[in-house]
Fold SIS domain-containing protein.
Amino acid sequence: EQINKGKYEHYMQKEIHEQPESLTTTMRGRLIRGGSCKAKSVLLGGLKDHLRTIRRSRRIVFIGCGTSYNAALAARPILEELSGIIVIMEIASDLVDRQGPIYREDTTVFVSQSGETADTLQALEYALENGALCVGITNTVGSAIARHTHCRIHINAGCEIGVASTKAYTSQIVVMAMLALAIGDDTISSQGRREAIIDGLFDLPNKVKEVLKLDEEMKDLAKLLIAEQSLLVFGRGYNYATALEGALKVKEVSLMHSEGILAGEMKHGPLALVDETLPIVVIATRDACFSKQQSVIQQLHARKGRLIVMCSKGDAASVSVGGSCRTVEVPVVEDCLQPVINIVPLQLLAYHLTVLRGYNVDQPRNLAKSVTTQ
Ligand code: AGP
């Protein structure tokens, strides 16, 4: 596998820009286009002997750390919608600390780029002891999580070198969207929705190419933010995870304090932080939560918030409160796939902030690519 930097200066930069290709590889051979007598569908070979058990589960419990946890959180709404099964999210270390409930009737899904994260592995041992079906979603064939789970889906994103996970995140979301499609495959009432998502998946690499064109714009934004102490990111619904993941990227590489905030929680504390100095990214792309996000923008603006609004292409005028907010316009895709698009400008922002601030972008201080100790 080609793991040099090619024309790029850093691995993180290369890995951000190769997402159209990594996503294509993730989906290769797994999407069925359908035809005159065959419906569009998804084929996940690694799960074929276990799908019936998964469909009969009492709950599906997603377990991971850091970016891998955020990817599962991004996919949660579509998993709930298409599977009709209770979907629970667990941070691996917290599940183990609490010895939280895991039952024989549960399907547990372990999400890990490296497949070697100690916390996730410990949670896997715990789920095995409790008799749950264990599914692995990893980027590393032969990793401990891949070996010890009952069945697995390889994300095929290609080798990721930068400590900050970028292309693995978007591939993980796509794999979990495909998992939702596969679980819901026998439900006739959602066939139209599933077909729209499959069409959206086919077109996703092109849309990612389009959003990568924001590179220069995000570099300009990074120049504006270079000396800031802190950056807040507000999201909700499908893009709550984008807010968490965007903030995680900014803090782990640029070493700027950053916090992802569920916009619905704004009035329950975070609003006190808002003034004319603190920069705030608000994710307000088109989906069922759009009007709520418009109201959040109005309220932040009324408190003189310094807003950067991420919106759908063509929406800049309707979200910028009379042109007073900076906007970043992104291409529109099916709502459940929008997190794949929306994270890209934030990855680019984190990358440029780090380079401009003079920090090590591929190897941030104190961090390891794979956290193999507890
Ligand atoms: C991602 O940018 C981080 N470096 C970190 O949060 C990472 O996602 C976490 O340690 C989990 O790693 P894994 O996916 O290899 O299990």
Observations:
- Residues 65-68, 112-114, 117, 120, 163-165, 252, 370-371 surround 2-deoxy-2-amino glucitol-6-phosphate (CB under 6 Å).
- The first strand starts at residue 31 and ends at 32.
- The CA atoms of residues 59 and 106 lie 5 Å apart.
- The mean pLDDT is 95.
